[in-house]
Amino acid sequence: MPELPEVETVRTGLEPVLRGRRFVRVEQRRKNLRFPLPEHFAERLTGRKVLRLDRRAKYILVHLDDGEVLAIHLGMTGRFSVRQRGRMAQLGDYTYEHGHDARHDHVVFAMSGGAVVTYNDARRFGYMTLIRGADIAQDAFFRGLGVEPLSEALNANFLAGKARGRKTDLKAFLMDQRIVAGLGNIYVCEALFRAGLSPFRGASSLAAKSGKPTPAADRLVVHIKAVLADAIRAGGSTLRDFRQANGDVGSFQEAFAVYGREGEPCVKPGCRGTVRRKTQGGRSTFYCATCQR
C-alpha cells in the first residue's frame, strides 16, 4: 500500500498535466474498481476544468470548477501514466510488479493540453469517487480522519492530549488514522527509530500526569515530520517498481534505518544492537531493541 510520501509524489506528478486543463474525453472501461464508480462518472467529468490538486491522508483530491472533487485512492497496485507529445511517463506503481498490461487500464482521461492520463490497477484495490467539495469532511471516506502529519496541527500538545490515558502501544496509536491521517507502517517504524522510542512502549508515555507533553512527544513530532519530508524529497520508497513522473524510481528505501533490515546492525553511531522484526497488529515492526526505549 502506498504511504503518504508516495501518494504525494504521484500528486505532484499529475499536477502539471491536470491543473488548469479540462477533461476533453473520459473513457470508463468498467463499472467498478474496488467500489462502483459514481453514476454518470464520465459525463460528470467531461468538460470540467481542474482548479487544483490536493492530498488528504492517502487520497489525491482533484478540485473541479463545478465544485465537485475527484477523490482518488491508489490501493495497492493503482498507478497513473501520462502520454504527452508521444512520450510516456509512469506516475506510480506499488508493491506488486504487474508490468504494463493494458487489460488493467480501467480509466483514461484525455486532457485539453494534449496529455492522456491512464489509470491502471491490476488488483483493483484502488477507487475513485466524486464528492461535493463542501461535503468532503462529512463523506464516509473522510469523516473521522485525523490531523495531517505535516501540518501545524500535529504538535506535541496534540499528541499528548490524544495519548493521555491510552492503553494501546505507541505504534498502534500512531497508525490510527483517526489520530494522524496518512501515516503507515514504513514511516512509523522509521520515525520511532529516529526518536529513540520503542514501538511497544505505551502511548500514554507521551503525556505527563499533568497532561502536558513529555520530551518523547516533542521528539516524536520532530521526527515524524522529518522522515516524511525526507521521503517526499526522495520521491518515496520503491518496494518493487514504483516510478516518479519522470520515470525515476523513488529512492528513500536506500535510507531506511530499520524497515526491512532484520538481522542487520543498527545504524545509530555507538549502538551495538541489531535490527529486529516482530509482528505487531498484523504488520511487521522493525526496530532496534538496544537504542529504542
Runs in which pLDDT lies below 50 for 5 or more consecutive residues are 93-99, 238-250
E-strand count:
11
According to CATH, the homologous superfamily of the largest domain is: MutM-like, N-terminal
Shape: elongated
Biggest sheet statistics: 5 strands, antiparallel
CATH fold type of the largest domain: N-terminal domain of MutM-like DNA repair proteins
Please provide a written account of the structure.
The chain is of the alpha+beta class and 293 residues long. The chain folds into two domains: 4-138, Alpha-Beta Barrel (N-terminal domain of MutM-like DNA repair proteins); 156-288, Helicase, Ruva Protein, domain 3, CATH 1.10.8. The protein contains six helices and eleven strands. The protein has helices at residues 4-18, 41-45, 156-163, 170-175, 185-195, 215-233, and strands at 23-28, 50-56, 59-64, 68-73, 78-84, 87-90, 105-111, 116-121, 127-132, 275-280, 283-288. The strands form three sheets. The protein has a five-stranded antiparallel beta sheet with strand order 1-7-8-5-6. The protein has a four-stranded antiparallel beta sheet with strand order 2-3-4-9, with helices on one face. Strand 3 and strand 4 form a beta hairpin. The chain is elongated and about 55 Å long. Residues 93-99 and 238-250 have low confidence and may be disordered.
